[in-house]
């Protein structure tokens, strides 16, 4: 598990090489779910390096969202009660 110091070190090294704009571009691509291959080609690195960046710069969060029709069903049953 990366520490905050190691995250900061990797981020600083990334910015030295690709600049702040590059870091923004990487983070935007990761947040948008772009494939590791596409990102790797953009930065001329391996997919493994992109995976490492992904893990050190943030985390994937999964969110479960109930469909509106299911919510409506529950609300209509509550009103009938």
Q: What is the overall pLDDT average?
A: 92
* Helicity, as a percent range: over 70%
Give the number of domains: 1
Strand content: under 5%
Largest sheet: none
SSE topology:
Elements: H1 4-31, H2 36-43, H3 47-57, H4 68-80
Helix pairs in contact: 1-3, 2-3
Report what the structure shows.
There is one protein chain. The chain has 81 residues and is mainly α. It has four helices and no strands. The protein has one domain.
Task: Please give a quick description of this structure.
With 81 residues, this protein is mainly alpha-helical. The chain has 4 helices and no strands.
Top keywords for this entry?
81 residues; mainly alpha; 4 helices
């Amino acid at each position: 598990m990366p520490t905050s110091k190691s995250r900061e070190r990797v981020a600083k090294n990334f910015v030295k090489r690709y600049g702040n704009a590059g870091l923004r571009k990487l983070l935007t691509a990761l947040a948008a779910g772009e494939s590791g291959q596409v990102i790797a080609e953009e930065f001329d690195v391996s997919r493994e390096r992109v995976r490492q960046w992904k893990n050190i710069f943030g985390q994937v969060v999964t969110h479960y969202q109930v469909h509106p029709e299911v919510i409506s069903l529950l609300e209509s049953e509550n009103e009938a009660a």
